[in-house]
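Q: What structure does this chain adopt?
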Amino acid sequence: MAPAATSTASHWPKESFSHVINGQSYPTKGAKMIDVINPADESVVAQVPVATKEVVDEAVRSARAAFPKWSQTSWAERKALLQKWHDDWIVHNKADLLKIYTAEQGRTLQLSEFEWGTTELFWDLNKYPEPKDEVVEDDGQGNVNILRKYPMGIVAALVPWNYPLILSFWKIIPVLLTGNVIIVKPSPFTPLMTIQFIIAAQKYLPPGVIQIVVGDDSLGPMLTEHPDIDHISFTGSTNTGRLVAKSCAATLKRMTLELGGNDACIILPGIDMTHVPLQVFLSALQNSGQFCAAAKRIYVHEDIYDEFAAQLVGIAKATKMGDGMDPANGLGPVNNRQQFNKVNEFLADIAANKQKVLVGGEKHTDKGFFVPATIVDNPPDTSKIVIEEPFGPVLPLLKFKDEDEVVRRANDTRMGLGGMVWGPIEQAQRIADRLETGTVWVNQMQNFNPLSYFGGWKDSGIGGLHGRQGLEHLMRSKTLKLAKETKPLQL
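A:
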């Protein structure tokens, strides 16, 4: 499936975007600059500066100065300021922001619109449960044991390039609501839209409460090792997550790690063959498969395998690939050359091992980081495409016979982020309960909201996001043991 011939790529003006520190854009004069590349045509969209240690230190000082006052404001006050930022600015700049987003990320405008709509769910600030004191013990005689929550302090948010819109706000909103201050580090591949959001936020929030620093691979360790940052919220690969955890250990930093997945999707007999294949296709290959909780191993019962495979292949062939700015295209490129090369290693391995490809499989050799939607027919469980996460539009379709077999094979991985089961509800729920993952969606695509806790099992993460549990990861607990009066000591 070659990219569509016509291209409507938007060549964004090569203006400089910068850090935002202490309420204002940071001067870029004399700074080392790096290019942000449009993955559809490899043109330069804009440039961003590379943060130095001095820039990071200045952001941390500003955050530390802002924290005492911000942490003492009420939940209601913080909520009102965030809501005003959203209502006055964010919703009114959607069109321009999504053009920037598509140009830097590569996704289709249709998917950008969909992600925007999903992000809006997280702006329903009434769905975030305000932490309350918990009376653990009260003997009725004036002796009370209270558990109270306090803001952590400075949170550094390390955001990846695959879904920077929603993943930024997954971190920003709960961090600020709980009285913490935040320094956002976007990926150098996709920093532009996030910078625009945070520049605008300075009109609504006090200086130092929300800042952004941008840079190259040297920036992450500057934040994770910084002695005056209290918590790291990281979303990214498991390998990088291990490095983050090791770096945080030196200063005993608290951390939330949302890491990679190799999610199994199990298809049982009795599904609606009219609607389920399209939803499975999208759950696996939306954003060209660059999705931590994407369906990455599709297990289909042998009784319906051939029919389901034919449906999936038909959808893949009908989905046009090309520049995300063209509304006719359903799949864009992968985001960057590094990822493009990695995904092509999977295609090379599939070819070298003579695995049957039902659709796709060819390497793109023209401009742009395009990888065709590729479906592999029942490869061995020991193959690279089954045991590793491609993070691209390459998908193994696997055949199974019975429930115990598919559960065993689905759980045979060190990953445990998410999973899916499609089929009759009682059987599907029974299987879902046996999957070793933090979230399982039954008869539905992936969906997220502020009330539903999301965290990985095994090597897919530490801690999690959303819900009461996610908020509590951003706060410190204190036990207050109160006595009405001092009693004589009995020896």
